[in-house]
């Protein structure tokens, strides 16, 4: 079998000389799909924010608790998960389809490496559907058009925006894409968000983000609890509101409340 590229097909630039959001996340989560630029930047951030690995894990644990709640308690059967990331343990479709195999999931990401892995690994149950769209969050109308081929957008959908909105640095753009997506979904749909914040580590978090971007990393911005809550305007925010991912309905523990992490989250229902 030849491994040389097809002559008229452009080589994909994975940008492995620069740290990238999906790959740093993969590094912090203990995965192998990352490069020296990602590991160096990941270590730099960890020096400034010693709890950053817990933050990535808490985000994933929130994903699990949130999807379980949506399927088991709220009756949701359709998910639009934008900012998929590199496949890891307990991806959205695995959590959902383990409870109800008929669940339908559409993943969206704009990273070519995520695209390559997703097609191979994000394979769901025969009863349900798992589809992947290579698109940018800043193009919500294209996402909705393509997602509509797999999801019935007249029925409730859970829109998952975990670890992605902080990459839409411009506030106006960030609130607009959320508004456009939520507006297109019917009553009874849900919006889940996990977002980086400086509420816990203050200036160290801003400094880590600055240094990350100086290395050519994916643009990123921290938003405070109030700004994150604004994404849910017009929706019914479920208890306990916008909190650290570690404190969103945590599993009972004899050691008291978990420590806060620098990723805050919330889940809301569209009335
Ligand atoms: C930190 S990972 C989060 C992965 C997963 N959602 C989670 O919470 O564990 C962020 C993902 O968002 C993707 N991403 C960033 N900006 C994006 C954009 N404008 N459009 C689509 N995907 C984007 C990145 O490629 C990356 O895979």
- Bound compounds: S-adenosylmethionine
The CATH superfamily turns out to be: Vaccinia Virus protein VP39
Number of domains: 1
Q: What do we call the CATH topology?
A: Rossmann fold
Q: Terminal Cα separation, in Å?
A: 55 Å
Q: For the CA atoms, what is the radius of gyration?
A: 18 Å
Task: Give the ordered list of helices and strands.
Answer: HHHEHEHEHEHEHHEEE
Instruction: Give the low-pLDDT segments.
Output: 1-5
**Number of contiguous helices:** 9
Question: What is the helix fraction of residues, given as a range?
Answer: 25-40%
Give the overall form. Answer: globular
The CATH architecture term is 3-Layer(aba) Sandwich
Mean pLDDT: 93
List keywords for this structure.
about 270 residues, alpha/beta, Rossmann fold, eight-stranded mixed sheet, disordered N terminus, binds S-adenosylmethionine
Give a description of the structure.
The protein has 271 residues and is α/β, with parallel strands linked by helices. The chain has one domain (21-269): Vaccinia Virus protein VP39 (Rossmann fold), CATH 3.40.50.150. The protein has 9 helices and 8 strands. It has helices spanning 21-28, 36-48, 52-73, 92-99, 112-121, 140-147, 171-183, 203-214, 225-230; strands at 78-82, 104-109, 129-134, 158-162, 190-196, 236-237, 243-244, 263-269. Strands 1, 2, 3, 4, 5, 6, 7 and 8 form an 8-stranded mixed sheet that branches. Helix 7 (171-183) links the parallel strand 4 (158-162) and strand 5. It is globular, with a radius of gyration of 18 Å. Bound molecules: S-adenosylmethionine.
């Amino acid at each position: 079998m030849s491994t040389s590229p097809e002559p008229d097909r452009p080589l994909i630039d994975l940008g492995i000389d620069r740290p990238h959001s999906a790959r740093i996340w993969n590094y912090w989560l203990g995965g192998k799909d990352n490069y020296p630029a990602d590991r160096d930047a990941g270590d730099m951030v960890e020096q400034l924010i010693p709890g950053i690995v817990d933050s990535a894990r808490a985000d994933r644990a929130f994903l699990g608790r949130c999807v379980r709640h949506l399927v088991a308690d709220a009756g949701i059967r359709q998910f639009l998960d934008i900012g998929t990331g590199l496949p890891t343990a307990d991806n959205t479709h695995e959590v959902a389809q383990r409870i109800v195999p008929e669940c339908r999931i559409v993943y969206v990401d704009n990273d070519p490496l995520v695209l390559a892995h997703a097609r191979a690994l994000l394979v769901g149950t025969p009863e349900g559907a798992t589809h992947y769209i290579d698109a940018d969050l800043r193009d919500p109308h294209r996402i909705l058009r393509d997602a509509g081929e797999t999801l019935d957008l007249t029925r409730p959908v859970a829109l998952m925006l975990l670890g992605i909105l902080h990459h839409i640095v411009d506030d106006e753009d960030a609130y607009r894409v959320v508004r456009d997506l939520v507006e297109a979904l019917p009553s009874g749909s849900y919006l889940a968000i996990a977002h980086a914040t400086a509420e816990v580590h203050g200036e160290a978090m801003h400094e880590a983000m600055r240094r990350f971007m100086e290395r050519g990393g994916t643009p990123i911005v921290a938003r405070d609890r109030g700004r994150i809550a604004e994404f849910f305007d017009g929706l019914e925010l479920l208890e306990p509101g916008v909190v650290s991912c570690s404190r969103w309905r945590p599993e009972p523990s004899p050691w008291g409340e978990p420590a806060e992490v620098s990723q805050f989250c919330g889940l809301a229902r569209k009335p």
